[in-house]
Amino acid sequence: MRLRRFPSLLAAAALGAMVGGCSLFGGDEPEAEAQAALAARQPVPVQALRNIEIGRTRDGYAISAFGTAPTTGYGGASLRARREGQPAPDGYLDFDFVAIPPDPALNMPQGTIDARAIRADAQLPASRLRGVAGLRVHSLTNSGQVDF
Question: Do residues 121 and 57 share a domain?
Fold first, then answer.
């Protein structure tokens, strides 16, 4: 019975390798190059901030920033803390709203404002907000704040 399973397992492995886009005996160079190109693209500031929302969670707070990217195709949006997450002298925690731009070879269209909408979320424990006056989120062209 074991001899009968082996060919089916080998066939399944070969089929899985082909479906996965890589060969059975080595990596697919174009895919590796695409992954390297993606890793080389660094997050850049989002063009404009539209809105900031803050909500209470069981362990602290959830912050959501809504904005507009320069073109369509941006992804991996995040809120990056400034000053290693320490408050500014005025007591505000500052975040940069950033996203990873699309591959330049794709030549993405600018698109409508709705098509360029982007969102980033961050979770903050309640202990990190003790003594903080509020939150500020910065984009390329504007910023917004939430006061506590």
Answer: yes
